[in-house]
Amino acid sequence: MLFTRPRGTQDVLPSDVESHLFLENAARRIFNLFGFFEMRAPIIESAALFARSLGSVTDVVEKQMFIIKKEDGDIALRPEGTAGVVRAYVENGLDKSFPSGKFFYIGPMFRGERPQKGRLRQFHHIGCESISGAMPAVDIEVILLLDMLMKEIGLGDYQLKINTIGCEQDKLNISKVLYEFLSGKRESLCDDCQRRLDKNVFRVLDCKKNSCKAIAKEAVNRINVCGRCKAHFDAVVAELDRAGINYIIDPLLVRGLDYYTRTVFELTHPNLSSGQDAIGAGGRYDNLVSEISGGKIDKGAVGFALGVERLLLCLNRAGEIKCPQVVVAYQDASLLHIVIDIARQVRAKGISCDYDLRHRSLKAQMRRAGKLGAKYVIIIGEQEASSGSFTLKEMSGSKQITGLSRENLLDKISLKS
Ligand code: HAM
To answer: Does 79 sit in the ligand 1 pocket, CB within 6 Å?
Structure first.
């Protein structure tokens, strides 16, 4: 092989596209039901936007961004969608033109991670951002939407973990408490956590190693959020209870991006291995819009993103390709003008139609029609062409109708398709 795809990327082949479309269409349907508008921000953004939004000492910014060096500032392939949506919201004054502040996006994201099953360097997000304010109603609506979407795509058996990490002041207080406690246990933490301790102490709570988990559990017993953040969280989970949504409150859930405040959540699914079992995640970010707008717009927001490839691993859908319904087979190249005309008429009826462009033998064309999975073949020989009557072959059996006029031919196909 002279060239192969870059590590950690996938070719979404025709048989996989249908599965992507299945998810995308379901998502569009549900987002529309909740009054969200689709947005398509660029795939490249200034690298500084992500450093500012996600935090310069997060794994994503520190280690995983694909950077393109440019004289007028580094450009990054977007590792996630939130920062770009918020940037576009501020830059285009969407706070005025879209007062609901509810947007969704579907598209590729890029992270230079070590590839493995369910972890890619180019993957796709189905995500949304509800830049709608500080009320618990915003968190609740986003989670209700997520629940409806998961049920719609047949993954209603997902698990929702939820937690609150408090407001900016709480986060500062908590990081102090965590640092004091965890510094005393430094020697017992893994090498990664020893580094995290000094850079971003919250990340120690994320560690998957059992020894660190035990210490993290002790640590979270010492932290608390303020009364207002607690009341916010209580209001969110009370509504989830009323709506019959199952969740687990996980005090160790902190999320790896800096912009989160208050509510954070993660979705897992039993069909995925425990290392890469998050099929989606999200939360509230109350200060990002203000930060990106230089203090001009102060709006709290909540959003989530689902990893499309991980959803597909859970769903395990058999790939399906849409075959042309009708193939026109013809005896020789001199009949091409009739073929083109008939194909035009069939397509005008909304029926997919294909014909061989290489003028091969009728036998070869019939074989090709079989391989393509066509339902019908219209056969045009010299005789049919001169008499204006055609033959229609049904591929599933050996049924063949001869002597059909053009009108009858088109009616027959329309009726059966
Ligand atoms: P995130 O947790 O970084 O959140 O990504 C969301 C989901 O994307 C993950 O749960 C996972 O399913 C999928 N994902 C992440 N990295 C990879 C990868 N390398 N390969 C395959 N799938 C992956 C965010 O990106 C936030 N922007 C979510 C959000 C929106 N928060 C508020 N609004």
So the answer is: no
